[in-house]
Write a structure and sequence with these properties.
By secondary structure, this protein is an alpha+beta fold. It has 20 helices and nine strands.
Length: 427
């Protein structure tokens, strides 16, 4: 050993240090410190910086220093014997790992401890990937609507791709915030995705897998500059209904679905414009939900958004139209009012808009009904028919549009108006 060079038996009295268990124990000459002895551990290279360090451990008396030196010596010898099993491949791997970690100031041990926390001790039955699959399976079994299940599948599978192999217990609110920020710069998209993740964690809490929902601590997503709802004027509504009545009449060179149920789009538009029922609710309606005697449509929990049932009044402008179409489409009480799929309706709507030189407005049927209905019947009745639990949505969306539209609203709901779009049907 280098510190033994030239000295066979150093002692505290003569040389100020001794060699004990192959480690140097030196006497501290500073009278102001309580520590009288220190044990030198020799030269040690830092695994991150690569610099040589000379650590010294201090003690109050010689016996404590000797006890530490003995224990440290045994530890060093054990590490030396383990190093004999260290292969060349392992050495190269450790050197490469330290080189990668050096710019981050992280040791190989710290990196291994972090990995162990997130991977080694994970019960793979509670990884994000496994639990997302379980959630989707249980959602399907619990009769979640196909469209809702489709949204869950799309959003949570992407979440699983980002965190799939990690334990769900290690996912923090900061992880979710960073994920959402990286996923999209659209606030509405991030808000919908956060909602799906929150529902997923609530499912985990219910099943006793986690104790809390990290999304509760996520940064609140506030959608700014919300677009005002767009509506169609009463003349455009009649124009669409009239044109839809003959645009899809059977023709020789048409595709099969164009010839089937030619006036289904007309029926769909009439219900949307004159009842305020949501598009997806219209597609779920059955003829048994319509009570012609009481002039009402029962939006059951199976049909309604968020499964909140309500009763919708059928105004005279729509009543006769429904009776006319019932003869063609009501094969039985349980048959759907609209016999087309959402995709088929979209294709027909696009064709209608192109023919009229118009652009389809999202949710404009419901917005149009709400605006004219509020102008004619007031806010409370409109809120009940639309299924809103508070008036906030009414004030935020429709009340500004409905001002000074009393005359237009009276024309919109005029029972005589029905004849304008029933002529072609009766013909």
């Amino acid at each position: 050993m280098a510190y033994l060079k030239g000295i066979k038996s150093p002692s505290i009295q003569r040389n100020g240090y001794i060699i004990y268990c192959d480690l140097r124990i030196s006497k501290i000459k500073n009278p102001k410190t309580k520590m009288r002895y220190e044990v030198s551990l020799g030269n040690i290279r830092d695994s991150v910086s690569g610099k040589i360090k000379k650590p010294r451990i201090k003690f109050e008396n010689l016996d404590e220093a000797k006890d530490f030196a003995q224990r440290k010596s045994i530890e060093i010898k054990n590490e030396g014997s383990q190093s004999l099993d260290f292969t060349e491949a392992m050495k190269k791997d450790s050197l490469k790992a330290m080189s990668i970690l050096k710019p981050f100031g992280v040791s190989l041990t710290a990196c291994a401890e972090y990995f162990a926390k997130h991977e080694d001790k994970v019960d793979y039955d509670i990884t994000v990937q496994a639990l997302v699959n379980s959630f989707l399976k249980d959602s399907k079994a619990s009769d979640v609507r196909p469209r809702t299940l489709q949204n869950y599948t799309h959003m949570l599978n992407d979440f699983s791709n980002a965190f799939g192999k990690l334990s769900v217990k290690t996912i923090s609110h900061t992880d979710i915030d960073k994920y959402l920020l990286a996923w999209s710069d659209k606030l509405t998209s991030r808000k919908r995705r956060l909602s799906a993740i929150s529902i997923f964690f609530n499912y985990l809490i219910k099943n006793g897998i986690v104790e809390s929902n990290p999304t509760k601590k996520c940064e609140r997503i506030k959608v700014r500059d919300r677009k005002a709802p767009e509506i169609w004027n009463e003349i455009e509504v009649v124009q669409m209904l009239q044109y839809a009545s003959f645009l899809f009449l059977p023709v020789m060179d048409a595709r099969p679905y164009d010839n089937k149920y030619p006036d289904a789009l007309e029926l769909y538009l009439a219900i949307g414009f004159y009842s305020g029922i949501r598009p997806q609710e219209i597609l779920r309606l059955k003829w048994e939900d319509i009570n012609f005697k009481n002039k009402t449509i029962h939006i059951s929990s199976d049909v309604a958004k968020e499964r909140k049932p309500r009763i919708v009044e059928i105004y005279d402008v729509l009543l006769e139209f429904l009776r006319c179409k019932q003869n063609n489409y009501a094969l039985n009480k349980s048959s759907n009012v609209i016999p087309l799929s959402s995709k088929q309706l979209t294709r027909r709507t696009n064709k209608l808009m192109k023919a009229l030189g118009l652009n389809w407005k999202q949710d404009a049927m419901r917005h149009t009904f709400a605006t004219y209905h509020m102008a004619k019947y007031g806010i409370d009745k409109t809120r009940r028919i639309l299924g809103h639990s508070t008036n906030n949505i009414m004030f935020d969306f429709y009340i500004g549009l409905s001002e000074n539209l009393e005359k237009e609203a009276n024309r919109f709901f005029d029972p005589k108006r029905k004849t304008e779009f029933l002529k072609s049907t009766k013909a």
